[in-house]
Amino acid sequence: MTWITTATGAEVSLQQPRLASINLATIAHHLAQINRFTGATCRPYSVAEHSLLVCEIAEREFGLPSQGLLAALLHDAHEAFTNDLSTPVKAEIGAPWAAFEHRFERLIRSAFAIHVASTAHATAIKRADLIALATERAQLLPAGGTPWEVLHEVPTAPWVDLMSRKRCTARWSDWRNAFSQRADALDFQRQEQARQLGR
User: Tell me: domain 14-34+42-197, CATH 3.40.50.12640, correct?
Assistant: First the structure.
């Protein structure tokens, strides 16, 4: 079997996925139910919640425009189809995983017209992702242990409390809806700007 069934009932080929298979409803639904860190966090913490945090960091810390913010929000959107593997597991699998993941990364970028934004703002998005990771490591995972080399000299985001009551009591569907609403708003801004430039 070389396809998966999505939450909407669609079947997506893993070898030759089609652009028509990619939609925001599927991405938001799946990401809101996929836990990061293989479930090691002290509360359920989804890829959707992480993506929203990365987007907020990109806005607060780096002032990215709407196209860049949409690219930041969707930086892990491919995981709706590939699932989320831990970084050590990805390294263990190596090149085959990277090629498989990249196939869906390209497809997502085409679906939402963010190829240019993803490239132009790659450094800022990666830094925002690392700040989010450092914050998650500090607030959601057990203290101590071997330091993560990737987080050397990476600050946390002091303005966010990942253990706040609001976050802890939010349902998976709340994160799905928040992700969808943010993506819709940013995509609308992107299309409006493109329309104005085309005049």
Answer: no
